[in-house]
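Batch job 17 of 40 flagged for manual review because the log was empty.
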Amino acid sequence: MKKLLILTIIILSGAGCAFADIFSHPAKVETIQIPQFQNVSCKFSQTRTIPQSNVEIESGGEFQYIKDKGVIFETKFPVQMTTNYTTDENKRMSSIIAAINNKDYSYLNKNFNMFYEKNAQIWTVALKPKADSKISPHISSIVIQGQTYINKLDINTVKNGSTKINFTECR
């Protein structure tokens, strides 16, 4: 049992290091290879860390990406709530999502320093806002990891802590 616990800790710490290591891989636009996303529905689980505390809030529910409209998170627990990142609402996040999906590298290059790494079938893209970007006072970094679909999304904000989202059962 003790060996299993040690092995689990080693594996998990390695995964965390690999995710943080993405920022040592600056990317040129032409090297980034992520799939073109169509409409997709997934289950999601989310952990939000509150700054200057050890408080983590866990939630989960249903996620939808609707091409040319945006993203909808329908939280099922601990409370029921729907958050829309569509073209009309939450413009900042909607613009980032649309730029990634549409491979609008001019928008991304203008606003972010981009990082990219691909190992086997798993790709990771990281975005750090440029100092002169309108996004920099709000977002510290965004890390996206996936295969056919996005598997993980890690958003670190300047004032509101971090949000880690895992996607499963995508169809």
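Reviewer: the log was empty due to a logging misconfiguration, but the result itself is present. The mean pLDDT is 84. Unflagging and moving on to job 18.
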